[in-house]
Amino acid sequence: RGRPLALCSHGGTGRPGSRYSGSAETLSGLVLGVYEKEKDDDGVLFTEAAASFDSSVSGKLRELLSLSGPPLKLGKSRVFYGLHQDFASVAVVGLGKKGVGVCGKENWDNCKENIRAAVSAGCRQLQDLEIPQVEVDPCGDGQSAAEGALLGLFEYDELKSKKKFPVTPQLHVCASWEPHTVYPLGRIKIRPCHRFLRWLTNRYNASQKPQSWIESEQMGAYLSVSKGSEEPPVFLELHYTGSPDSSQAPLVLVGKGITFDSGGISLKPSSGMDAMRADMGGAATVCSAIVTAAALKLPINIIGLAPLCENMPSGKANKPGDVVRAKNGKTIQVDNTDAEGRLILADALCYAHSFNPRAVVNAATLTGAMDVALGSAAAGVFTNSNWLWEQLHKASVITGDRVWRMPLFQHYTKQVTESALADLNNIGKYSRSGGACTAAAFLREFVTANHWAHLDIAGVMTNKDEVPYLRKGMSGRPTRTLVEFAAVLATEP
Ligand code: BES
Ligand code: ZN
Ligand code: ZN
């Protein structure tokens, strides 16, 4: 906060202080920002860094920009060669209009979003040109520029033989160009799941609770899902104690951790089923948020809970019409085995209350209906607390990884509490209608905390090309919003 920082600074490979020597093996590139002018007839409006670069090359950049075509539109870039001895290529990127700031209609900060999109486009263009080291203009907001660079360059290619060209981005943090200072940015790393768990276990107060523990906790709803698979369940518990008062009530984050959702006996169609490897996105975002909060040393106590298991159709799997008993004693009729997320979360939410939390926030790729409702624009937030809504909303305006409030009406509660055989039914009475809302109403039956929020993140799980600074694939959303939220909360008394 207040200084440029990578999202996940662990495992950084940035090389501080290394400069382009002019030799072929250490080619450097530069990304510089330029604003859109109000009237397009009066030249170029540079950022501070771009202006000082331009004067270090005697105004050549301004000249070339005017000669090479119309003013750059937001997110578009143009590359120039041979301008400066330190930089083989200079990518100039369009930042849109200057000083746009927070937009009430869009619910985000246009300035920050524009910087993320533009810097990401510039970095990718230099990556395509196989420039290994790229210096980035902070564009007046180093944090957003760093996010644009790192998120824009990241692609999960660990399992491919042919990797994306590796680029080390650095943030330019000085007004003058010779000599100048760069700030290394860590590359985001995704560790293979098991290694990541072991790493967490060693580094944080983390435990992986086995099936015997889950049984002793009487988490019957969770166990009913996991028993359909050959793979045993693991309940992950992370403790980060960052508050100077170690007894301060914690924020408890709970994440849905279905490591594969086949649908179970209510089997999903095969087309697109592969995406259900990401049905642990809630667990992933919660773990990442806690690791990042710890890297930032936020003065707050956070506990992360993630029930992990598969949802598979074996001879031992849940059958439609089965009745299971959750940790709080409530019975649930499982009419659709594909509505498994709410079953595992029911038990995890009950357990979350044993920590006397100041707030409970869960994240889950819970319903296809959430994707139908909002698509990838925002995660749906269902909450019993106006205060919690305001905190989450405030955080999301800053990060651009947006949230939108959804209703928790009794109307929906009725549709899950009128079950033929049990206290609750795991699907709404009118099956598809208001599917995201009935799922949230179901979860609420396991909550007694005054400040609870459920984030349905099914719609933001993947990125095609909607968010310009994220590559295609699993999006990692809304990790940045959870981190920002924790940071906001850390400053609250
Ligand atoms: N994991 C899915 C929801 C999902 C769908 C996430 C698409 C991401 C993308 C969840 O377990 C599920 O299958 N929900 C059912 C609920 C229904 C049976 C009431 C759904 O949405 O169809
Ligand atoms: Zn499912
Ligand atoms: Zn699922």
Automatic annotation (TrEMBL):
The keyword Hydrolase applies. Residues 336-343 form the Cytosol aminopeptidase domain. Belongs to the peptidase M17 family. GO terms for molecular function: manganese ion binding; metalloaminopeptidase activity. GO terms for cellular component: cytoplasm. This is Cytosol aminopeptidase. Keywords: Aminopeptidase, Hydrolase, Protease. It holds the Pfam family Peptidase_M17_N. PANTHER family: CYTOSOL AMINOPEPTIDASE, LEUCINE AMINOPEPTIDASE-RELATED. It comes from Pygocentrus nattereri. GO terms for biological process: proteolysis. Homohexamer. The keyword Thylakoid does not apply. The gene is LAP3. Cytosolic metallopeptidase that catalyzes the removal of unsubstituted N-terminal hydrophobic amino acids from various peptides. The presence of Zn(2+) ions is essential for the peptidase activity, and the association with other cofactors can modulate the substrate spectificity of the enzyme. For instance, in the presence of Mn(2+), it displays a specific Cys-Gly hydrolyzing activity of Cys-Gly-S-conjugates. Involved in the metabolism of glutathione and in the degradation of glutathione S-conjugates, which may play a role in the control of the cell redox status. Gene3D superfamilies: Leucine Aminopeptidase, subunit E, domain 1, Zn peptidases. Its EC number is 3.4.13.23.
